[in-house]
Amino acid sequence: MPPSTIGRTAAVGAHRRPTPRGSAFEPLFRAVCFSAATALLAALGGVLVSLAIGGWPAISRFGLGFITSVTWDPVQDVYGAAGPIVGTLITSALALLFALPIAAGVAFFLVELCPPILRRPIGTAVELLAGIPSIVYGMWGLFVFAPVFSKWVELPAMSAAPAGSTWQTLVQGIPNGSGILAASIILAVMILPFMAATLRELLMAVPAQVRESAYGLGATTGEVVMKVTLPYVRRGAIGAVMLGLGRALGETMAVTFIIGNAHGLPKGMFDAGSTIASTIANEFNEAGPLQSSALLALGLVLFVITFTVLALARLLLRDQARL
Amino acid sequence: MAMSAARVASRRFANAVFVSFCALVTLLALTALALILYSLITQGLAGVNLDLFTKSTPAAGTPGGLINAIVGSIMMCAVGMIIALVVGVLAGTWLAEYAAGSAYGTVVRFLNDVLLSAPSILIGLFVYWTLVKYGFGHFSGFAGGVALALIAAPVITRTTEDVLKLQPTSLRESGVALGAPVWHVIRTVLWRSGSSGIVTGALLAFARISGETAPLLFTSLNNQFFSWNMSRPMANLPVVIFQDALTPYPDLNRLAWAGALLIATAVLTVTIIARVVSKDQHRP
């Protein structure tokens, strides 16, 4: 029974109870709560509508060419967003590819293998690290990671590539430590604690009987995880991975520092590129009228991509404990 | 057992590979994260001195600190938290107490979860479009606070709803049986018994917005000088860090590291307090 109907059944026995003092405010309170909830809905709708209205001049001017053309030229006032869109998808996919096995390994280690005395400290550390602002990851990428990456990975890989090979095409770019691959690695480091913490929560929610009966049948640790507990939380695990993907897609600061900020399609893994979020962060404040409309339209593209991913993630996670 | 020795050996081997993989990647992840903390602490401490808390952001080559950015960040976070607390607690209350089973409630709950992890830069664009471009007509600290509120409110809504749903129905019934109107029971009984959960949610929301950079870029912008005026562009730590880190000047870079250390310390402290507060409570 919804609690709100309780107050109305005031008649008890022969006595008619007086209406409680202050009950006149009940509908008002309810309306205030309702409008607060509606405000949240309006905010999400407002984001969509403002991006659509603001981006409309660019969308109507360039049509489908806006998402297929790679020419982003503020001087000629011509905007095609294929570069940032592809950059966003590539960096997020690579980040997920790097982070997923590691995050899963960390979660398995914490739930099944970790000595009990280390379980709490490591688990807490992972959770705390998930809360560190992304700008810190970005700064670390720019000042600490990039020089090391340039010297020990990019230069050797480029000088070792035989001329004309696929390998050489793949490692094209300027070996200054920033670029598509470097940004993907920093993104992976950033989403790693979050995904590990989420997967760990899911795996810990598996009933002990399920796990123990698998061990009782003689399964090894690897078999218990891969064939019993992981399939048990399958939906939730996919949802958690997609939440991580959603973070990577919309991440601004960790990427902007290290992706190199060049328009157009990246030619190789070490080449400078851009993502939707980094392009908006870099250009919005200095943009002319049509350029700022193009940036808002880019935001609309990002909204559609992330909304789809996040909505799917939430649908998959719905039956699990809410995360 | 009819299991062949070879099969046992191969299962053993597969398990050894699995176990060592898990241990190895955990070591790798912890090393990477330790390296980040190490650089943050060493580089950040190098920039911490008295000037940091007494002087405003400098031009390159002159001594300066971050006091204008620290004050700006605190003020904007305070505005954001006040708005987010009011909206979040009321919306969470509606979802938990009034929306049981309603279709609209399901929609709001679902979209609130989406808003919870929506890219913060899009929220910045939305606030720019509504408040900066058509509202005030210029960048302002208040617009920055509203952008932060939009990021914090879904978190608080979510925790409030979860906490209220954990309260036993008998608590509501006994309040109403004593003759109190429902809204009175919510205020004086349910909010009070769930207060530590709501406080935890608020602290986590605060930790989240204190490091947010992207939504402030187009709303509060930045300000080279100290200012209490929220209706004008306002300095704030994340944007100062962003701008100073991308300059080629070592002294500004050092200031950026010091700022990053301040934010990270604040976030970690708040998160730890939140964990302590929620310790004796059921974790939502």
What are the key terms here?
heterodimer, A: 323 residues, mainly alpha, MetI-like fold, two-stranded antiparallel ribbon, 13 helices, B: mainly alpha
Give an account of the 3D structure.
The complex is a heterodimer of chains A (323) and B (284). In chain A, strand 3 (72-73) and strand 4 form a beta hairpin. Chain A has helices at 26-62, 65-68, 82-113, 116-129, 134-160, 166-170, 180-204, 208-216, 221-232, 234-250, 253-256, 276-283, 289-317; strands at 11-12, 15-16, 72-73, 78-79. Chain A has one domain: MetI-like (MetI-like fold, Orthogonal Bundle). In chain A, helix 4 crosses helix 7 (180-204) and helix 5 packs across helix 7. The longest helix of chain A is centred in the first third of the chain and has 37 residues, at 26-62. Chain A is mainly alpha-helical and 323 residues long. Chain A is 69% helix and 2% strand. Chain B folds into two domains: 5-46; 52-277, MetI-like fold, CATH 1.10.3720. Helices cover 75% and strands 0% of the residues of chain B. Chain B contains twelve helices and no strands. Chain B has helices at 5-46, 50-54, 67-98, 103-116, 120-136, 141-166, 169-177, 182-193, 195-210, 214-217, 237-245, 250-277. Chains A and B meet through helix 1, helix 3, helix 4, helix 5 and helix 7 of A and helix 1, helix 3, helix 4, helix 5 and helix 6 of B.
